[in-house]
Amino acid sequence: MNTIPTIFNETIIPYTAVGGKEKIASSGISAVVLNRSGQYQNRTIFSELEKIGFDNIISVESCAPHYDIEDLSGRFPFVRFILPEKELNLGEQINLAVSDIDTPLFYVFHSDMKIIAGGTAKRMAERLNVNSDEKDNFESGFKSLCTVPIIMNSNYEVLPTIVVPMTHRRKMNPVFLEPQNEDDLSLYPFDGAGIYDRQRFINMGGFDTTLITPFWQLMDFGFRANLWGEKISLSVKLKLSYNGDLPAEKFTVDDSYKRFYMKNLAPVFRNDYAHLPFFGFLSYLFNSADDPFSSWEEFKECRKWVAKNKFRWKRDARDVTNQWDSAPEKTRLN
Description:
Low-confidence stretches: 132-138, 329-334
Largest sheet: 9 strands, mixed
Structural class: alpha/beta
Shape: globular
Number of domains: 2
Order of helices and strands: EEHEHEHEEHEEEEHHEHEEHHH
CATH architecture of the largest domain: Alpha-Beta Complex
Strand content: 15-25%
């Protein structure tokens, strides 16, 4: 059983870094490129990011890239290539990249995506700044923990990437809407793509990498953010497109789901704190395929984590799902 992290990057991931770390601009945003395929089909991506004016460009590679990193670094000396010693899941990649940058914002997207709208990096940061009249209402200078873009396919058709939690027969499932209006709320950033407030991301603990499945990592991150009073919202001025096929979401109910459930759906919020009551164990045991001993150990681990963070709760899971009740008819992503 993996211990739930209580601080950001509690587990150190060994890696090698090649290339530049010097700032090449002063926009306040770093670009974090997650190399999904192990190779760059379009190497002009780095030149394009340099022109946009990101302070730093971080490329998170696979542990066995299909090209010469030294050669690529020589061609793009302003890019810092991170090579982990093992294959990383989505949350591990993003957490690792964040530990290597120091700008207030960072823009995450994949190597099979391209930025097609948003302006310069400096302009992106300016749009996300809180107005001077609103600063007292926000802990940092930005309104959202994460601002998500409109995402299109390779034919520039808008994809339904606004994630909405819906409860049916006591089970919570995501449905997907096409983005419509500025500041529309999303449960989590689809495919992990978006501009994050670095300090708030760290304060949140980043992604829980003990959840192996990327889908449940995203669900956990988004639900935890909403439970703790943060928001993830849309900017219609930010746009990304996929170069190829849309990656499939995997909704498999597995061990990652069990931990997600105990961390996010099972805790009870009262007054100003949350707790995971002992009677929740019986429901967990009944719905779990684990033996009683393993189930009890997992329940204790989650209860310990909830107790440590109990005053960070601002509402419960029902309140989170209720905020989308007035949303228009839902369109599922096939």
